[in-house]
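Hello Y.,

Per our agreement to keep a running log of every chain we model this quarter, I'm adding this entry. I've kept the format consistent with earlier entries: sequence first, then predicted structure.
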Amino acid sequence: MFQSVLVVCTGNICRSPMAEGLLAARLAERGRSVRLASAGIGALVGHPADATATELLALRGIDLRAHRAQQLTSRLLAEFELVLVMEEEQQRAIEMRYPTARGRVHRIGKIGKFDVLDPYRRGRPAFERSLALIDRGIEEMGRLLWGQSHVGAAPGRSSDQVKIGSM
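Predicted structure for the entry above:
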């Protein structure tokens, strides 16, 4: 079982914070202790999570208000056993720039063979589609990585608040 997971997207304000938050909540519900963080290939360093991402996750009991975007670096990559990306192109880019990461970088939609498109500045429906795909990817990866048929509870059913960015 992996003890540390880094989630990566482009700016680290939309998809990767949503994925980090959702994965943290799911793992906590299962009593799993896994170190989680997120970063961006071209991060908007220091920026909070997008307001729509924050709102959608708040509906699930996940608090992204403390999140601040950080840049992906070789040092950060070295700290994590597993790196989940949103797009196949992001996987290629990371593996080309950081060859030592090969074998640890996987697309969140690898099993279902899908990319999670960037919803940035595309409105709430785009965020909802991205979140649904992230949810699906976490479900599929959870079965593979942690041997679980369901990594967590249904959306909106979390009884505890999960805060991202303060961990």
